[in-house]
Queue: 3 jobs
Job 1
Amino acid sequence: MGNSHSATAIETCLSTVCAGRSSCVGFPSDPLYQINWVKPYNLDKAAAVSPVAVVRPSTADDVAGVVKCAADNKLKVQAKSGGHSYGNYGLGGPGADNVVAIDMANFQGFRMDESTWQVTLGAGNLLGDVTKKLHDAGGRAMAHGVCPGVGLGGHATIGGLGAMSRMWGSCLDHVLEVEVVTADGKVQRASEAQNSDLFFALKGAGASFGVITEFVMKTHPEPGDIVQYSYSFTLGSLRDMAPVFKQWQDLVADPQLDRRFGSEIIITPLGAIIEGTFYGTEAEWKASGIADRLPSTGRSAGTITVPDWLGALAHDAETEALYLSNLQAPFYSKSLGFRREDLLPDRAVEAMFDFLASHDAGTPLWAVIFDLEGGAVNDVALNATAYPHRDKLMFYQSYGIAVPQVGQATRDYLTGLHDAILDGVGRGRAWTTYAGYVDPALGPDAQPVYWGANYPALQEVKAKWDPADVFHNLQSVRPKKG
């Protein structure tokens, strides 16, 4: 298999691509391979993550050479930028010993066209750096998530959701054109006008179709005024949090809800926190009436701040770091997407909090997060891009972190919670979730869960552009047969 099969041939080929450059390629024979080269994000199954090689190319031609080496040796390819895949799929994933991983860390390019305010970005840029570079290049911004260590290459090809998505759309909705290396080892351009079928697939299922080296993206002026809010609820029992959740869900279900408003509710062993951002002035925030509709009790503590754009993103990053660490750790996660008609009825909310209160999590380090979505993301047709969740109003995701590894009690707790939610809202339809919250427990047939009704079209594009399935992981798009 992979690490022994044709090892000499692939090592020779990749070393030729690197042409003697130091820090260009690492192999399992390196005693520090896992620490210096592989560096899996989810340590729950890190011991099983061992790609044939990890390459850090510097140019698109380098990437093309790596893809050719892998294909000629009948190996698979996966790329990572920030490397935050919950299943470590940028490295091939657990047990995948036939994968060449491409680390895009050297692709840090940034170029702003001040006549169009379109930016060209290398796929290895991290979101925290993107924010700073856009700010410094004329006070520009775009929609993206708030974790600063996430890489643009994966984020902008799988969806890219954040607090500003309701106002501006997802990160991938900002992508106008890409440079991409395809399975035949060619450097291509893709856009609505050129290789449009490939462009459709890359905007939501990128890891299955190529290695993007750079993006051309539209930008916006930074919001001039921002209000951030945080309400903490520490009641007697988690069961007491049900009314808080119901009131928050009633608010976010309003079809006329101001698109400048973003919010999430975070449930932890200590209670609940409602966080969010309003992109407007404090006067506009008060005039919107939203603050009056947020849950409030005598045992809640609320704070309102008015930061600038960079300060708002820094606060969001700090908040996310408390629950979704940017550090490597062993964790288990489940998730689900909800349309407006799928929102939790009262009985489902009560069942969810009853489950949380009455079962052992096996770890004190867990969180359940419901994120408000919708708005501008939903303005795009369901089949306009590979990203299929244009009808979703919110997503939930749960996390359990345990050291040195996640125990069965934690898996049972989060899986049981997931089942309780499904039972509460009904199992009568094909439920889907965001591929950015990848769930290895769904197994090798998870594709319809991630891409829904768009999956058959993606299979056809895959059969055209990658019939040998070079770009492959456990849950990637498979080419249509026949």
Note: The radius of gyration is 22 Å.
Job 2
Amino acid sequence: MNRLMRISTGIALATMLTACATNQQTGTAVGAGVGAGVGALLGQAIGHNTTSTLVGAGIGAALGGLAGNQIGAYMDNQERALRDAMAQSEAASIRRDQDVLTATFKSDMFFDTNSSQLKPGAYNELNRITNVLNNYPQTTIRVEGHTDARGSDQYNQQLSERRAMAVKNALAQQGVNPSRIEAVGYGESQPISSSDAMNRRVNIVINPIRQS
């Protein structure tokens, strides 16, 4: 069977299985499990090897979303991986609020004053978490830019937006699917301290994709 025929067969199988799952199942039986199975079939059809099957399974799982009883363990594992990846960083902190993870980076480590161009060291910091983000594809990523209160509201808002977009682009360049990433600027509107240095920050907020 040539490559084109394998792809066609895989797509047909994927369509059939997805339709069956949609028509016959609701709740936890639909989603990550079915998505992973469909993706695995696509991977095997396209690549005809174990590596392609595993890649396909990961893609399919991302399409399915997480059932409610899967989310806690999934985010537990991702939190451990994220903390391990960031253990040697002096620029970031990790916190968790229920099933939402937030990695906060000091903006001064990422950007010069009044600049939205990433410093070389910023790429090293982001590279620490790239593998984690890619290994847990059933999450969305919101990049938040924050500034201090110096300067006008409008200027700070625009600067925070440009900085958030710069981080999003850097993550995409390092292999994170850009369709998962949202870039948002908050300017000076969400201070967390009386310290300007603390308020200048970039948050990477990670949310689980839930089954609809």
Note: The two ends are 37 Å apart (CA to CA).
Job 3
Amino acid sequence: MSRLPTLFISHGSPTFALEPGQAGPALAALGKTLPRPKAILVVSPHWMTREPRVATTPRPQTIHDFGGFPPALYQLQYPAPGAPEVAQRAIDLLRAAGYPAEPDAQWGLDHGAWVPLLHLLPQADVPVFQVSLPARLDGERAYAYGQALAPLADEGVLVIGSGSLTHNLYEVRFDAPDASAEAYALEFVHWIQTVLNARDHVRLQQTMTLAPQAQRAHPMPEHLWPLMVAAGAAGADVPATRIEGGMTHGVLSMDAYRFGELNVPDPVAA
């Protein structure tokens, strides 16, 4: 079985579900090129726990974990099945790497998972489960967390880190989704692209120390850690391909990255 790519996706505001902008069609196009996975694993900053937890829910609920948005948003569902057996494999891998991972039979899909999946795989016919993001991380630890999950990509599982390439909620122009991009956000995005093009995962893990405007782009870095998880699951030997998503609300980059090539056979059919 050939190895699947891993993905980092910027999930933006919950309204991304209703307002696809540039990123929605880009994710839809990406989804059409991906081999059909056996299951999808999503790590999102909207499920953070003290120690790792893995959702073993057979039928994960669509979690509307936000407030004050248009009523239509709360009607959306992503009725994909869960993947309890694959989730148990993730638990075993995390434990083998020294993490005290535990199953969670209640957790569904938070908006960091289901909102981008609405665009990426709208049929909701591939099993999905989440792995929580540990609360105490830095770049190196988030990368190592992805490394622990890396064998799943060899087993037909699509590993997705869902976060935000920039995430300064203090400066978001909620009243202006098409506001001009702030220069500092663009500078940060360009630095990430340069580092990933060079496959320099050592510098990537030190983003919050080395990148220009890092503290302003990520006053709280939890939305950056899924990028490290995705990169760690892929490793530095594969190329990173940018999927441009534009900049929304002036400061939220919607870029995604695919780590790895696409010339692999369908793992289910193989």
Note: The CA atoms of residues 36 and 266 lie 6 Å apart.
